[in-house]
């Protein structure tokens, strides 16, 4: 109950102590604006002027404000729902698409802010990279700069989309007319079991209705092709025997793993279903609940070996004592973004198989496609349950650097193409880093080539493709690729050292390098087997000794640097939507959009619909957004050697940490031999993976023969572009080399870092295990 006090009428004397006055003032809180209290404050001013001033400034009209407050300011700031609303209004990456925020606090997951806090801590830590070298610091700052660039432009688009019309907010069903009613009555007379039934798509569930449910990823592992064969060699007797492998597939996502049974042979068949459960922190909040998930599904192939460790032969008929070992044969990675954009993926995946696999040998097949590729392929069918809606694209409404009529023409041409072919996306206007929309043809211009090596004078297409593939990428979920298009120029990509996961930025740079080499090329936008909507580079070359023949077309993957023939059935490109270069934009209007059945002659209007022609001219090359020159920094050889030693120490410590129950012994002689082999493996990639063994490499392999006499060796090289140390540690751990429980096993680990201009790095890791022969 609120008490009211009467005006004060107190006669003060100098004998009253200041402490009593202060306590009296705190209890009564007299109003200095009340005329009845004027004499009191004048008397107090005569006694102590400073105290009178404090009492006047301390007075509050609402002295019982704390009694009326329903919570404190600390409780208000710590409220998770209010914090979530503030972060969504601020436009943070993790919460910008959250629409349905729960009314109850207990419905919000407790760890929903972990990713945001980690990102903020990482961004602040990027400037405090104590103990890190210049190469590691540049990767951290580059990734942070790319994310900030996308975030800035996204907020700019959000401000531009503030003016909405009625149909953007209110969705009304169309009023039925005679046409719709007629179709309804016609369904009554249709046959219940038609001869040619149309397949009904599975009902797609809105993500906001997935509260409390799990998202399951079902992976059907069908079969594999061209698996290397195990080679058992006895160097003492000079015998070499080919033993059929016993492969199995293991899939992993975060802390979940699942594997198939063991098959047999170089072309095994499983036809088994494996399941993974995905659960996002914001599954109840975001319409695209997988947006915060930036991980990947890792698929590894192993060879299971049964080792007999029974020591007493007299008990062999009654006792069995065996140990299972696994040898890594290859792997492939499937981003979550590709999986949730299409709900299902079906195709043949090329596994990342090392060329030199100690203890194994690949049988040469009669088919030409498998002969020159030297790879293993895996047939998969991946499906999401329940199927999710495709994320709605963000309609960018920014200022356009093109003229108004030119912009309207490109929008009209793109809209007509979508009406005719709704499933084929085509890009006409994209966002430049300046925040303005630019025509896509302005991103093409010949750029000066980097110096791959001082020993190489003639730079080939394979060398520049290798250089571009070593630039790291950022996962598509982090950058909203596919829903938000920001294209980087060549100098920006080389400066930031990070590009989008779709490969558009890498493809643009590769096209500019091909133009400098006088190689006719196009940027191909379509769908890939493992990446969903992605970008590739299409090139044409004349047939040798047949100038009148039709040119031969090849497809380059800018993220791996590998080249495929358009007639190759194992090509990673599934569908082709459009082609872009400095001259024009072509939309694929053929009935067949699969790459092996597509005709690539862009001069045929029946196959390709050009955007520019008789009625509208293409933009001139003078208006390209690409720079005239690119300043390349020389290769950081000294920093690469420091990073090489640091990575080797980190990986060795990680191997010993994983082998807690066993002692880890390192074979120093084998390590020294592997260090000599690794530089030659990098040079092999400049020739497109040529199979010819150099004399120097032949000498190093001869040194390994001394070890093969007394030891059984199993090993392989791993090659990755340098992004961060954690990625390399995960790659080594996924091979399962540390799971060998043989008490006599020895290990060898060698690291080589090859520097390129602009701090582009290629990291090679050679792993090997040695077991003494009996």
TrEMBL record:
**PROSITE patterns attached here?**
C2 (PS50004)
What InterPro entries does the database record attribute to this sequence?
C2_dom, C2_domain_sf, CEP76_C, CEPT76/DRC7_peptidase-like_dom, Tectonic-like_complex_comp
Provide an example Pfam family for this protein: CEP76_C
Which organism does this record belong to?
Answer: Melanaphis sacchari
Give the protein name, as stated in the record.
Coiled-coil and C2 domain-containing protein 2A
Per UniProt, residues of the C2 domain are 196-349
Enumerate the PANTHER family for this protein.
Answer: CENTROSOMAL PROTEIN-RELATED, COILED-COIL AND C2 DOMAIN-CONTAINING PROTEIN 2A
Gene3D superfamilies for this protein = C2 domain
- List, in alphabetical order, the GO biological process terms annotated in this UniProt record: non-motile cilium assembly; protein localization to ciliary transition zone
Mind naming one GO cellular-component term on file for this protein?
ciliary transition zone
